[in-house]
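hey m, so remember when u said the tokens were messed up on ur end? i reran from scratch. heres the input so u can diff it against urs
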Amino acid sequence: MTARDTDVVISSRARLARNLAEFAFPGRQDPVSAGKVADRVREALFAGSDHMARAFRRMAIADLPPLDRSALVERRLISRDLAQDGPGREVLVSRDEHLSIMVNEEDHVRIQAITPGFSVDEAFDLALRTVRYLEENLAFAYHERFGYLTACPTNVGTGLRVSVMVHLPGHVLGGAIEPLVDSLRKLRFAVRGMYGEHSEAGGALYQVSNQATLGLSEDEIRTELRRVAASVVERERTLRRELHRVQPLALEDRVGRSLGILRNARLLTAEEALQRLSDLRLGVALGLCPDLDAGTVDDLVNRIGPASLQKARNRDLPPQERDAVRAEEIRTRLASGGAAPPMTPTAPTPADPTPPGPGTPPDPGPSAP
């Protein structure tokens, strides 16, 4: 898959919510029923398939220490809600962390696919193939008039949420972010931080997603998201060019200072590192950092969260040591020209891919940033 518009769009996501017809929704189910739901979903995914058993890793949330849960949230494999204690909660993660199936969160099943760049349709196709594969062995709650039934009324219908993760420093530095957020909300789009609902925006990273599904088809939801996101992308590019035209020295100084700090700092908080990396990503897009690429910056963003740093080293780190490790990680990557060591895996070694087709498991495909 060729990632498109990566100067602004980091990744695209599609999430489908479903509930098993024979069980009460998670908000009203007892622990025994929750356990049965988890068993049913797991059995439907693996369904005697050695390929799927090797391609996915199951993680029961109750068995994970807080550090592991936080690392999964930082890597956008689970939601903050799923990371909380609850009966029967688990996640099934594909071998390359491209696809995850959350069980017993707000709904019984939430399938999410994340693909690189502006690739909403590709993410949706992967999520939909996974749902159809599960439907071969599961009956989902469905109403002829309303569509798929979900715990939250805003998801009723298709159960589809599509989103793009966008980098908007032009809007932030140009004072245009609040008008953008207001206008998108009037169009019934949600604008959140990089970890979704209840998260703050940092490093000019925002997640833009549809808010309503009832009364809309899957095609209509995706078409509107693509249209709105394309408008945001073009406006962001215009604002960046205008900032560089009007204040070239100030912008180049900002990027240069951030690059210098990242290459030399011995202590970096997560907040400062994210902001400095945001400046670097802007510099890459404007051609001010010819020795770097956006992929390197995006990978660093994925690695420097508190839980991810500690998980990679398999131990708890006090705050100052964590800041020192974060600074060292960034210095090393920038000095090596962007080459990255492998992250601590959360999925098993991949099996030989199975071609997608009727009755075959979905192949997760290439990893997203």
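this time it looks ok to me. The radius of gyration is 21 Å. if urs says something different then somethings off w ur setup not the seq
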